[in-house]
Amino acid sequence: MIKYKNTVFNCTMELAIELIGGRYKALILWYLLDRTLRFSEIKRLIPQATQKMLTQQLRSLEEDGLIIRKVYPEVPPKVEYSLSESGKNLKPVLDAMCQFGKTYVEEHSIYSPSLLQS
Amino acid sequence: MIKYKNTVFNCTMELAIELIGGRYKALILWYLLDRTLRFSEIKRLIPQATQKMLTQQLRSLEEDGLIIRKVYPEVPPKVEYSLSESGKNLKPVLDAMCQFGKTYVEEHSIYSPSLLQS
DNA sequence: GTAGTAAGTATCTAAATGGGTACTATATTA
DNA sequence: TAATATAGTACCCATTTAGATACTTACTAC
């Protein structure tokens, strides 16, 4: 039993789902794996998410200590997001997910020109 | 670009999130990793999920070919769920998630008597 | 004859999520 | 003078998701 933010989790798996299970969380973390990104860059990488959604997910990730938000006091604003040490621990999870997705596409003969190229 | 079920995914990560990102999906898959379970057993393992939610998630996992649903024509009903070959490919993902959760709890000094015991 | 069982479905309501638009700041550019 | 840029927030409305409860089947036990 794990208590975190007024919620009880029965196992570490439940906690992990809570931490990275949000709509665009895993995707954001995935893009942050290899580099720091500005808000606008993340928005360009995940165009299907509205600005509100992105902000929400980023705030939640920051609150859970998975990413670091660095604000530059400039106009127009500049905000950079990067993985925290805790966030970097997610690399095995994200790598495994990506690999699973690839295998799934191959085994289910799903149309994917980009996979044929690479 | 990947097309699956009338939806376009920009990368395999997005597809992976779609497949296992549902409310209780990763948890169900996690419990199915080492054994076949009846519906009532899953319900007992995940009491916070309503029957409707569980049925929904199980149906979705079945549709995506991650689990196998075996119905025994009996009364009262008996239905067994197990991982498909595709579902078994998720083991590295689920193991990594569990490990991440453990590390997260340790590093954030979250109250967890069960972790102290094990 | 009634209750219990397993795995659901059906229906209604409540809550969370998501989309759209407008608004903010200040410096630079056209 | 007006537009552009960035990273948001505020507000309202629509959709989706989730919860609660009742109902089903056919057999068995009390």
From TrEMBL, chains A, B:
Q: Which Gene3D superfamilies match?
A: Winged helix-like DNA-binding domain superfamily/Winged helix DNA-binding domain
> Which keywords does UniProt give here?
DNA-binding, Transcription, Transcription regulation
Q: Which PROSITE patterns match?
A: HTH_HXLR
Specify whether Cell division is a keyword of the entry.
no
* Pfam families per UniProt: HxlR
* All copies of domain HTH hxlR-type, residue ranges: 11-109
- Note whether Lyase occurs among the keywords: no
What GO molecular function annotations does the UniProt record carry, in alphabetical order? DNA binding
PANTHER family to which the protein is assigned, alphabetical? TRANSCRIPTIONAL REGULATOR, TRANSCRIPTIONAL REGULATOR, MARR FAMILY
Protein's name in the database: Transcriptional regulator
